[in-house]
Amino acid sequence: MFLSVAGLILLTVCMAVGFRMHSARQAAEKLVPESKESGSADLAPGQGEGWAVIGGVSPQVVGRVEIPSIGLVTPLLAGDDSTSLSEGAGHIPGTAYPGGLGTVGIAGHRDTHFRQLRKAARGMDVQLTDRIGTYHYRVSSTEIVTPDKASVLDIQSTPGLVLITCYPFSYIGKAPKRFVVHAELISVAPDDVKR
């Protein structure tokens, strides 16, 4: 009896998480078209204006993160607070914006939106889409670090991207380490989003 109830609770939780992920992905696809023919993108301000999390307001979708070769597609939200990370990946405040100088920092949960990140490997294409267009990055390395290693977000010699999630991926509870994917900007000019 106990196992039946526990199984039912676990199934309900999994369905709820799956529904939230599906809803967030649909929201990102509506706001950031997948192709130039998809229509216009109506997103929060990006680039020089910055993205802000407004207190008490739902997380603002500012773009989309994709690694096509592993099937990772998730909305990019302004901020890395718990509300943003429950809806998608979150832009880490104080880091660069897509296509800009510096390092773009993006965080996501290992058991939801960044689950596929465990398959990331050198040479993979990472696409960041915002209201300006799509920027392409190439994965240069991955590493496992302790949570206090903030130097992974340091500015490098070339504009870059850092994707961060908890590690190990199969850990139950609060994971003790972080899985970090480093990528370098390969297209300075974005693929245009049709307006």
Automatic annotation (TrEMBL):
Q: What's the top EC group for this one?
A: hydrolase
The record's GO molecular-function terms, alphabetically, read: hydrolase activity
List its EC numbers: 3.4.22.70
Q: What is the lineage of its organism?
A: Bacteria, Pseudomonadati, Acidobacteriota, Terriglobia, Terriglobales
Q: Any idea which UniProt keywords this protein has?
A: Hydrolase
Which Pfam family, any one, appears in the UniProt record?
Sortase
User: What is the name attached to this protein's record?
Assistant: Sortase A
Membrane-spanning intervals of the chain: none
